[in-house]
Design a protein that fits this description.
By secondary structure, the protein is an alpha+beta fold. It contains 8 helices and 12 strands. About 5% of the residues have low confidence.
Length: about 300
């Protein structure tokens, strides 16, 4: 059975130790594992076809999502499902899903003109996020209308949320199927590269984490929680995170992928429609961890 991982470009350009172990375990179980980085390929969109049995999206870039969308339209199987990934990456769509599912999440607003938020900024502190942002890039925290006026004019959609003050230490929760893990780490620029400190998962946090997956149609995912005086609040959701600091993450991820690839484990269905599998075959080859090209040119 052929698997393809669409990976994110890493700096320095070395394979994640967790993913390297996942690849090795899957190969030892008889899978043909390929991988590639969208930004390091030349692809003809009209010639990209399905040649693998399962695709695993491990990148959040717009180019990766675009290629995954082309494959999805041809019926490619993916874990997580492409509609779930694109909806999760879009913070505007994800915020609505979480709130409608009754998950504790901040109040949110959208606008194309930040000056229209002055009345809200006078009442509550706000955090402004690029709607397709990742790893904390481009975020602004404003506590009053004066600070709001200092934010540069926006050139792309943003999600504006009520800023939830916490302890200064984020609770990062990771989910593999129904297994839930958590670490604590202090947020700072570049903190995403560092593992957190494993901590106990409370019953409340576990229930919130699993409800996030059900609402989003995800199976491998993570969420950021602020432990506010009023209780846990989910401030971000992402698919296939790094799982840094999670004990024995690689064997759990490999087992999850194996079960789904072989059809022995049912993954949550996305709230969005998913196309059926076609008889076409898709394109991405060579051996990994060296990135393999999309042979569509």
């Amino acid at each position: 059975m052929k698997l393809y991982f669409l990976l994110v470009r890493r700096v320095p350009p070395v394979t994640s130790p967790i993913m390297a172990e996942v690849f090795d375990r899957l190969r030892r179980r008889g899978f043909d594992v390929d991988a590639g980085i969208a930004e390091e390929m030349v692809v003809s969109p009209d010639r990209l076809t399905v040649r693998h049995d399962l695709y695993i999206l491990k990148s959040h870039t717009e180019l990766s999502l675009s290629l995954a969308g082309i494959l999805h339209a041809q019926g490619a199987r993916s874990l997580n499902a492409y509609p779930s990934c694109i909806a999760t990456q879009n913070k505007i769509v994800a915020s609505r899903r979480l709130r409608l599912a009754g998950i504790p999440a901040p109040r949110s607003w959208v606008t194309g003109d930040l000056t229209l938020l002055h009345r809200i900024a006078a009442k509550v502190p706000l955090i402004i996020k690029p709607y397709m942002g990742h790893r904390g890039a481009g975020i602004h925290i404003v506590r009053n209308p004066k600070e709001l006026s200092a934010v540069p004019p926006i050139s792309e959609p943003v999600l504006v949320q009520e800023y939830i003050p916490g302890t200064g230490v984020d609770l990062k929760v990771y989910v593999v199927g129904r297994e839930v893990f958590a670490v604590r780490k202090t947020f700072a620029p570049g903190s995403f590269t560092q593992p957190g400190r494993p901590c106990v998962v409370t019953r409340e946090v576990r229930e919130i984490a699993l409800r996030c997956g059900e609402a989003s149609g995800l199976h491998l995912y993570g969420l950021d929680i602020i432990e506010s005086p009023q209780g846990p609040v989910v401030v971000d959701l992402n698919y296939f995170p790094g799982y840094k600091g999670v004990p024995d993450a690689a064997p759990l991820i490999a087992a999850c992928i194996e079960k789904y690839a072989e059809g022995t484990h049912r993954v949550r269905s996305s709230p969005m429609s998913v196309a059926g599998r076609s008889t076409d075959e898709t394109t991405m080859s060579d051996r990994c961890p060296r990135p393999s090209p999309l042979d569509s040119v």
